[in-house]
Amino acid sequence: MNPAYMEIAERIGARLCRDAVWHQGVTNWTSDFLEGEAIAHGALGPALYDGTSGIALFLWRLSEVTGERIFRVTAEAALRQALGKMPFAGCGLYSGGLGILSAAAEIRQQFDEDTVLRQAEPNRSQLDLIDGSAGAIVALLNLHARTRSAPLLDAAVRHGDLLLDEASRTEDGWSWKTIPASRNLTGCSHGTSGIAWALLELHHVSGEDRFREAALQAFRYEQSCFDQAKQNWPDFRGEKPSYPVFWCHGAAGIALCRLRAWQILGDPHLLTEAHAALRTVEQHSASLTSFSLCHGRAGNADVLIHAYQVLGEETWLRSAEAMADEGLERYERRHIPWPCGLPDANETPDLMLGLAGIGHFYLRLADPSRIPSVLLPLCC
Questions:
Q1: How far is CA 158 from CA 123, 141, 151, 172, in A?
Q2: Per residue in 165-222, pLDDT tens?
Q3: Which of 44, 251, 283, 343 has its CA 20 to 30 A from that of 289?
């Protein structure tokens, strides 16, 4: 375990505990957030992505490593706040109720299956990893791994079949319309890679070949979009395509999904694509202004940690450590606020955009074999 990285994780955890607002045995935080085009401030919701369940998950894992009571007590209180909002709209892993219940299952080591199944009802307008069926598959398979319950797997299969029904099938492969864009998106969070990854995990557990074939068609669509000169995949959300290197959109998330796909299928073409994405992440992460997990350096470095774990190539771990060391020197030791994922805002406390995610990255880097990623949460 690296004590310097562990120290940063503990200091961030202590700040979160200090800033928590307590009331009758539950706790929450206030934070900047985007309201239209303006920055507003208010209490957090319960979601894993930017709410109390995500902070609870970080503090719980920190307490498991350090044994510190304050981290555990605050995590449990934050989880109570999140569970008090159930049922919560949406079935997605990061923005919906299944993500909250997945965090609760890890922290409490138990869950109510009927509550999970009620929360898992599909919605044909929600398909991706963040908001919809792809994320639901991941959450349901995580919970199924704990109990081997057939109804949980059946629910995951229903979401998989919904994704097959909703696929846009062209000569270039399969893709999904998830959010407004000029074309169906590539990438992990709202795009084709995240959906393909979830379908592959469903194939891996269920043995159903239709989900493997759908995933391969999705990867074929993404490869048809690949820009050879930029060694990256386009983001179609703007008027003109851009080529980010984030977990949410771009090379970092695509690298994660291709690495896992290669682990499951052993296809060398998937490994070649993963290496291309990893090289792009390594080369272009220095330009990122955020240190968040979703679209910042912590997320990209987490991807490189995963590459080291899967491939055994230490160069990826060294690159992740270099990004971590830069953050330590630039922000923590100079007592400068961490640049979180919401531009022109203050530090935020949450998991995917803010301090909890940055702390989780340093906790994971301190002991990668013990701390799983929150960016590819099923296989780590």
A1: 11, 12, 10, 25
A2: 999 999 999 999 999 999 999 999 999 999 999 999 999 999 999 999 999 999 999 9
A3: 44
